[in-house]
Design a protein that fits this description.
heterotrimer, A alpha/beta, B alpha/beta, C mainly alpha, B: Rossmann fold, 4-stranded antiparallel beta sheet, 12 strands, globular, C: mainly alpha, 0% strand
Amino acid sequence: MALLEVQNLVVEFPTRRGVLRALDGVSFAIAPGEILGVVGESGAGKSLTGASIIGLLEPPGRIASGQIRLEGERIDHLPHAQMRRIRGRRIGAIFQDPLTSLNPLYTVGQQLVETIQTHLPVSAAEARQRAVQLLKDTGIPAAEQRIGHYPHQFSGGMRQRVVIALALAAEPQLIVADEPTTALDVSIQAQIIQLLKSICKTRGAAVMLITHDMGVIAETCDRVAVMYAGRIAEIGPVHAVINHPAHPYTAGLMAAIPDMESERDALYQIDGAMPRLDTIPPGCAFNPRCPRGFQARCRTERPELIAAGPTQAACWLHDPASGVTA
Amino acid sequence: MSTATQPLVPPLVRVHDLAKTFDVSAPWLNRVIERKPRTLLHAVDGVGFEIARGQTLALVGESGCGKSTVARLLVGLYAPTRGGFTFDGQDAHAAFQGRDARALRRRIQMIFQDPYASLNPRWRVEDIVGEPLREHGLITGKAELKARVDELLTCVGLSAQDMARYPHQFSGGQRQRISIARALATAPEFLVCDEPTSALDVSVQAQVLNIMKRLQRERGLTYLFISHNLAVVRHVSDQVGVMYLGRLVELADKHTLFSHPRHPYTRMLLDAIPKMHDTGRARTPVQGEVPNPLDPPPGCAFNPRCPHANARCRAERPALHEAGAGTRVACHAVQEGRL
Amino acid sequence: MKNPLHRWLDSDMGHSLRASPLAMGAACVAAVCVFCALFAGWVAPHNPFDLATLELSDARLPPAWSPEGSAKYLLGTDDQGRDILSALIYGTRISLIVGLAGVALSLAIGVALGLLAGATGGWVDALLMRVCDVVSSFPAILVALLIAGVARALYPDAPEGMAFGVLILAIAFAGSNGWVQYARTVRASTMVERGKEYVQAARVTGVPPVRIMFRHILPNVTGPVTVLATIQVATAIITEATLSFLGVGAPPTAPSLGTLIRVGNDYLFSGEWWITVFPGIMLVLIALSVNLLGDWLRDALNPRLR
């Protein structure tokens, strides 16, 4: 059974000018121990998806319809008190900025122990032992001394390790990481990615890794979901999506990224820009910019995720009934 | 660009022993009461390079390496503590202080990182792009000014209607294009670009980089391109300089640097980049982090993290020396033939 | 079809105003006061300062709805036969003008000094901030009293213009209610804007520093100051009323609301309550409505600033 199942999630923001749909029917599943990447550009809705799952959607945004199931139980419209128990114990969170993720007034040890004791029935002494072990597991040297240090006494990369330790403190089954390496230097990024992979594999935690960096996805994830304008454009195993993208947007994205292997004069560019929430075109959201837009159907009917080889793409090109070879 | 094909024209920009030190001490009263010493930050500590006309030199490095400070030194936003640079043969810093400052500022311009902070939110696009023209008195008639702004906006892919709008009505990529249009207003020869695409999405980045490359070809522009993204650097540059803690550790042409990196830090950087198509490969990233710039290690700045460091590395600071194939490296191990 | 007022009412701010009945009410009251103040000559039934029209026999008449009152003087008369309603309207005009002028002067001084301090930094900034600290350590009303009182003592027969001038000065320099708060706010905003890249771009282009200060930075720091100024108008009006009540504010030939309250104070305990109470209610109404408007403005501007 899937650990996390999201079915037709719709997130809306009521504004003065009408209701804006930030997420429009997002569906995916995460198996236990799997690392799923959610990639997309700004405005695609990937952070909102993460926020909806953790239950930290900012009002007036709300989940208008759809279901989020954690191990079969619905968690999308739980009362606050119950959601708080789930958050931390069964779902852990890592955010982008390690500086603001930690309370500057409490030591790292106090924050770890507080999290552990809130969710697990252990004594203070045992909680402290677990905290020290967590710091060691996340690669912080001299953990016994550093547990008494304040966040400002750690460097950027070390702080992010502490945040990872905090997320794992109550031994959750799922970790939602929203751009965990974006604010870090390239060399530290490599260390943190490595850490995330190994520690999640050893503890059997599944990860939902939200980022805009395809390279990080390539190195870390098992499967990846590409988001565009609040919908999933393509989802599948990471090698398949990167090397043989089925959706024209994914293909365009891959071609636009300068990489270390090939030499090109001009990067491929997808003309135009992602539509804003209030100007999403009917039919397929990508159709105005699509180089393969080939029939009137693209402009009128919104495609569902269709099997396209090893991946699934929301594109009419892969509909066997369309008679077109993709 | 190897040294074998030395250009007959002198380089447009020649930087020599450039250094900038910031005084970040606590206020005088605090220092007296708490008996704290003066704290000096050596943001840039002796950097030298050349850029030939029409070429792009990229400076890469991680946070705290001083590349942004170098950018600001080259446009006259800071005055150097030591050393300087010549632009087209004349001493640039003397020119920035003297009466020829305006003429020099017409020829050197800058593009900034943050598209949201680099345009005045209260000014219309027309005024933003036209300001350099008005400031330097290059165009005086209102109609001519409008026509020139229109021309500039068109060449970066925007339209004449955009002149009357405000910055908040544009996306990040479009704002960066407005910045480029503003920078080109005085027809400069040298553009310093401080991480121009770091804040942009991948597809937008592609658009902006393509525009920049096209403009360079069409107008013979010279770029100093600052970035932390090695893939982007590989795409746009001719020469690459790697900086660490205010010093230049390697300087080579693009192909040589990416295929045969010599300095241990360069190798580590290249190894740390997540590879998209070579997935599943196990890597051992180098441990440690960039040390505090206020308290750099003695000798070679990289020695605490370097697997090849010996006693000389911990005591003596290496100078940039020729290492064959047009590469310059600041490393004792390379010089001694250990690497 | 849509005139500018309709278009503004349709905007984000207009909607925010319409959504809040309190703000709408405050806006209406303030609008009525301003209207009366502007057109006092036509709105007021009598001219209380024209000595020829005063009839001493009509002195101390109660309001029209009392048995001894007369319909000619709606809110009664004071000890010299002046119609209270008319005196109210003229007094409101004086209070509003003095309040607005006081805030305007505070703004001019505060914004200029704040810009200078924020843009220059170094010892200029340190000196100005210490001056601000010293000025704001005095209780606001005492400083105003000092300035106005000393001026009145030195020149008891000063012409009207000079008396008002001193009054406006007293309000502008009234400790932490005066120019100091604008200087501090503008200085903080200036220091933030100075580090932004559009200012650096202007410097790279070679724009001289003074022009950068006024053409680039100033338009971007006026936001928080606008809200402060609106709320401070209420404080300025009350300061003026206080000074007038104490006898060192508006000259006796042009009484403001504070003067009226003071005059009526003497008659309060003999049962002639209307001479004090009506000016008092008017003062409260103006101050309250301006304050509420300022509150609404701050909230309306906030989400957009985010």
